[in-house]
Design goal:
By secondary structure, this protein is an alpha/beta fold. The strands form five sheets. It has a four-stranded parallel sheet with strand order 4-3-9-10, sandwiched between helices. It has three domains: 269 residues, HUPs (Rossmann fold, 3-Layer(aba) Sandwich); 147 residues, Isoleucyl-tRNA Synthetase, Domain 1; 52 residues. Helix 4 crosses helix 7. The two termini are 46 Å apart. The structure holds one RNA strand of 74 nucleotides.
Length: 492
RNA sequence: GGUCGGUUGGCCGAGUGGCUAGGCAGCGGUCUGCAAAACCGCGUACGGCGGUUCGAAUCCGCCACCGACCUCCA
């Protein structure tokens, strides 16, 4: 574990050297999706960000236990007493069991995350499967005196907690200011203060998802699930807690309060937050009407998109920005990413054609060091990608005989390029839709291109161009080179 | 209103007190029957105004603008 990985810790607001509590083990907890709707572009950012962290930590030799939850209960539409559970609401509207909703959208989430080449976490616990654990934490908090009961619901007493431990250490908020700035919502009469939050809520008669508890038949609050599940699988204190910046307050703040109240410890030592995605400069949001699901992205079926964008284009695009910056989606920017990715992937293929030579003219060790340095600097994937493009230049030069490698160095170089671009960044060559008879297409194309070459040989350019243009119409691009013609399927 | 962050060349997007990423687009060239593709080369940008400094886009102050969170959101 000889590395100098530094990560920006939201708790301290600066970059810190990463030191695990119990090396070589690393505990990583990331807030996963609330499965009440189709996965959208926003879901891809944290998934890809923490996939990169997961992959890199693993590469460095750590034994990473990566826990990413699925929220299938407790996430309410709003903070009022009568706020409806997101899953339950969808279930009511669609006349399905809440678990059918949760299962369906979990499956959809997995489908699209797989397409983005996001590795599955080590453990993917569901909130509804951990009601007992959540109730246990609620009890501990009540026993310690940091929560109160009201009409069968249990609320966290933020004011009391703040006196003993200070509430707001993660988000930098001060309770007095919260008092004056928090908006008053209807139906908060049960809470002592507007910033108190529910640990357990009594179910209304029509509420579908409900479990028995010492307090009432009800359901858990939103924040308690992460505390219960991270504690169960990673312990009272673990290494890294991640999630989107939008969760920083109140979700993560509440998690910290719950853990400190129940266990006396801040749950995680490093808090990592990815920034948001904007579309044409504006934040993507349900209410803003610029909400794009991943399916719409992959099919191009959305008014803001002028074509379909592949999963790898989106992955590459996201990785081209640093995870703590906002990243702005536009057709122009995606076009640039698509071209750039293609260039990189082509270079990786061409790399195999390099012939070993008597001497090496390229400083591989330096190249490798620079790649590691980029990642060690708070996962600076855009800088790493810039280095990889330097690598592609070297590849082109080597293919043209302007750079050379000994057999051993060539192996090292090839390994390094694959390691960073594929194993760590998780990029891969995308194969076009399954062709049931690839060898037939190969044969047909070989024949056609031979005919075209013959036509060219006798200067029958009319026939040659007819073949070329006709193929283009069909979505096949012919690329002439010194070694003859090649072809590639281009989906428009 | 409070808290936090941002403002970089046509676009996206890194970054550092002086050595001035990278991608895309653009331009020029090589190649080609013509194209396309590919390859090579080129562009000196850091919101405004002050200050610190031998030197700042990079540090400090003020101003402007944009955004995030404070309500559901990844």
């Amino acid at each position: 574990m000889d590395n100098n990985l530094t990560l920006y810790n939201t708790l301290s607001r600066k970059k810190e050297e990463f030191k695990p509590i119990n090396p070589p083990h690393v505990g990583l907890y990331v807030c996963g999706p609330t499965v009440y709707g189709d996965p959208h572009l926003g879901h891809s950012r944290p998934a890809i960000t923490f996939d990169l962290l997961f992959r890199y930590l693993t590469h460095l030799g750590y034994k990473v236990r990566y826990v990413r939850n699925i929220t299938d209960v407790g996430h309410l539409e709003n903070d009022a007493d009568d706020g409806e559970d997101k899953i339950a609401q969808k279930a009511r509207v669609e006349q399905l069991e809440p678990m059918e909703i949760a299962q369906y959208y979990s499956n959809r989430y997995h489908l699209f995350m797989d397409a983005l080449n996001v590795k599955r976490p080590s453990i993917e616990p569901r909130a509804s499967g951990h009601i007992i654990e959540q109730l246990q934490i609620v009890k501990e908090i009540l026993d310690k005196g940091y929560a109160y009961q009201k009409n069968g619901s249990v609320y966290f007493d933020v004011e009391k907690y703040d006196k003993d431990h200070r509430y707001g250490t993660l988000s930098g908020r001060v309770l007095d200011e919260l008092l004056s700035t928090t908006r008053e919502l209807e139906g908060q009469s049960e809470k002592h203060n507007s910033f108190d939050f529910a640990l357990w809520k009594k179910a209304t008669p029509t509420h579908i998802m409900r479990w028995p508890s010492p307090y009432s038949e009800g359901f858990p609050g939103w924040h308690i699930e992460c505390t219960a599940m991270s504690t169960k699988y990673l312990g009272d204190q673990f290494d890294i807690h991640g999630g989107g910046m939008d969760l920083l307050f109140p979700h993560h703040e509440c998690e910290i309060a719950q853990s400190v109240a129940a266990k006396g410890k801040t749950p995680a030592r490093y808090w990592i937050h990815n920034n948001m995605i904007t579309i044409n400069g504006q934040k993507m949001g349900k209410s803003l009407g610029n909400f794009i699901t991943l399916e719409e992205f992959f099919t191009g079926n959305h008014k803001l998109l002028n074509k379909a964008w592949s999963p790898m284009t989106i992955r590459f695009f996201i990785l081209q920005a640093h995870y703590r910056s906002t990243v702005d989606f536009s057709n122009e920017a995606l076009q640039a990413a698509e071209k750039g990715l293609e260039r990189l992937m082509n270079a990786l293929e061409q790399m195999e054609k390099i012939k070993p030579a008597g001497q090496t003219t390229f400083d591989i060790q330096n190249f490798k060091n620079k790649c590691y340095a980029a990642l060690n600097d708070d996962l600076n994937s855009p800088v790493l990608i810039a280095h990889l493009f330097e690598g592609t230049k070297v590849i082109k030069a080597a293919v043209a005989g302007k750079e050379s490698f000994t057999k051993k160095d060539l192996e090292t170089f090839i390994h390094t390029m694959h390691l960073f671009s594929e194993d760590i960044l998780g990029l891969k060559v995308e194969t076009e839709g399954a062709n049931p008879h690839p060898q037939i297409l190969e044969g047909v194309m070989k024949l056609l291109l031979e005919v075209r070459q013959q036509a060219k040989n006798v200067k029958d350019f009319e026939t040659a161009d007819r073949i070329r243009d006709g193929l283009k119409q069909l979505g096949i691009e012919v690329r002439d080179s010194k070694d003859g013609a090649e072809w590639v399927v281009k989906t428009p």
